[in-house]
TrEMBL record:
<feature type="binding site">
    <location>
        <position position="100"/>
    </location>
    <ligand>
        <name>Mg(2+)</name>
    </ligand>
</feature>
<feature type="binding site">
    <location>
        <position position="241"/>
    </location>
    <ligand>
        <name>Mg(2+)</name>
    </ligand>
</feature>
<comment type="pathway">
    <text>Polyol metabolism; myo-inositol biosynthesis; myo-inositol from D-glucose 6-phosphate: step 2/2.</text>
</comment>
<comment type="similarity">
    <text>Belongs to the inositol monophosphatase superfamily.</text>
</comment>
<dbReference type="Pfam" id="PF00459">
    <property type="entry name" value="Inositol_P"/>
</dbReference>
<dbReference type="InterPro" id="IPR033942">
    <property type="entry name" value="IMPase"/>
</dbReference>
<keyword id="KW-0460">Magnesium</keyword>
<dbReference type="InterPro" id="IPR020550">
    <property type="entry name" value="Inositol_monophosphatase_CS"/>
</dbReference>
<feature type="binding site">
    <location>
        <position position="78"/>
    </location>
    <ligand>
        <name>Mg(2+)</name>
    </ligand>
</feature>
<dbReference type="GO" id="GO:0046872">
    <property type="term" value="F:metal ion binding"/>
</dbReference>
<dbReference type="GO" id="GO:0006021">
    <property type="term" value="P:inositol biosynthetic process"/>
</dbReference>
<dbReference type="InterPro" id="IPR020583">
    <property type="entry name" value="Inositol_monoP_metal-BS"/>
</dbReference>
<protein>
    <recommendedName>
        <fullName>Inositol-1-monophosphatase</fullName>
        <ecNumber>3.1.3.25</ecNumber>
    </recommendedName>
</protein>
<keyword id="KW-0479">Metal-binding</keyword>
<dbReference type="GO" id="GO:0046854">
    <property type="term" value="P:phosphatidylinositol phosphate biosynthetic process"/>
</dbReference>
<dbReference type="InterPro" id="IPR000760">
    <property type="entry name" value="Inositol_monophosphatase-like"/>
</dbReference>
<dbReference type="GO" id="GO:0008934">
    <property type="term" value="F:inositol monophosphate 1-phosphatase activity"/>
</dbReference>
Length: 314
């Protein structure tokens, strides 16, 4: 296949990727039964950065199918990266894959784990497919062509609500794998500012409606795309956690931003932020006579980042 993709090529790639996600889902379900019986779990960076043989087997399955169908495409995968592969990101079509996103959930039998298959084209997140086989929920999107759940329901499923402030927000937040005193202090102070009650001794508190910690970055993006979460922020994810979700969220009217400095300047996500490991995604917001959706999203991100103490992820 030529390195320049036509719309027909992209349509075929999306169909292939959806079928591949479902095939990988079968192995994930098989692996869940096996791991819940064997409890055979390994550690990567530390005791909360988990991996199983099925993370590796699913990635091998997916990589093999991609190499057969699209031998000229590049491949970035979580477990290949962990094994030392450091592919350079180029303009070439590149699959960016997390074979099991939400491995901790997978290990515990908590049914919020998925495969995340993103296609980067000219470094842009262009196709995204996220499949949770435990709940049979498949999210898919192509840049400029909308986002869907189970291929039929366009996202967001309901008209986007206004987003007056953080006070009305249900926010995806994760504890991640960096549990050092320094990082935990910044996380908990950030969480306290966002959830705290300004009328009860937390003067900068935003008293947000709440946090949800699903344990899967990709599924958090899908929840934002579906309008179930208002936003999701995390420091420490990798490109394979977010590549597919960025397409799905954006095609559902959402917007993605990067670190505090760029977000406060109103800069939306660009491909140079892909390896930045600091990401925040905001759901679509209804345009109003006073404020367009994009303006509301930038306003919310600035309000959010006014509460954040950032750290550099190891
Ligand atoms: C997970 C991410 C999640 C993060 C976890 C973990 P994995 O990816 O999706 O957002 O909080 O620490 O990194 O490791 O399950 O593929």
């Amino acid at each position: 296949m030529a390195s320049t993709l036509t719309q027909k090529d992209l349509d075929e790639i999306l169909t292939f990727t959806i079928a591949l996600a479902r095939k990988a889902g079968e192995l994930i379900l098989e692996g869940s039964k096996a791991i819940l019986a064997s409890h055979d779990v390994s550690e990567k960076k530390n005791a909360v950065d988990l991996v199983t043989e099925y993370d590796v087997r699913v990635e091998e399955l997916v990589r093999g199918e991609i190499e057969k169908a699209y031998p000229s495409f590049a491949f970035i995968g979580e477990e290949s990266y962990a094994a030392g592969k450091r592919p350079e990101l180029t303009d070439a079509p590149t699959f960016c894959v997390d074979p099991i996103d939400g491995t901790t959930n997978f290990v515990h039998g908590f049914p919020h784990a998925c495969i995340s298959l993103g296609l980067l084209y000219k470094r842009e997140p262009t196709i995204g497919v996220v499949f949770n086989p435990f709940l049979n929920q498949l999210y898919s999107a192509m840049k400029g062509h909308g986002a869907y759940v189970n291929e039929l329901t366009r996202l967001p499923a309901n008209p986007p609500a206004p987003f007056p402030s953080l006070q009305t927000a249900l926010i995806g937040m994760e504890w991640g794998s960096d549990r050092s005193a320094s990082t935990m202090g910044k996380k908990t102070r950030t969480f306290t500012r966002i959830a705290g009650d300004p009328a009860h001794d937390i003067p900068e508190g935003k008293m947000a409606h709440g946090f949800r910690s699903l344990g899967s970055a990709a599924l958090n993006y899908c929840a934002v795309a579906a309008g179930q979460l208002d936003m999701y922020w995390e420091i420490g994810c990798w490109p394979w956690d977010v590549a597919a979700g960025i397409v799905i969220a954006r095609e559902a009217g959402g917007e993605v931003f990067g670190d505090k400095e760029s977000s406060v300047q109103g800069k939306v996500f660009t491909d140079d932020m892909l390896w930045g490991r600091k990401y925040i995604v905001i759901r679509g917001v209804a345009d109003s006579p006073q404020e367009k959706s994009s303006e509301a999203q930038k306003r919310i991100v600035k309000e959010f980042y006014s509460c954040v103490e950032e750290w550099e992820q190891s």
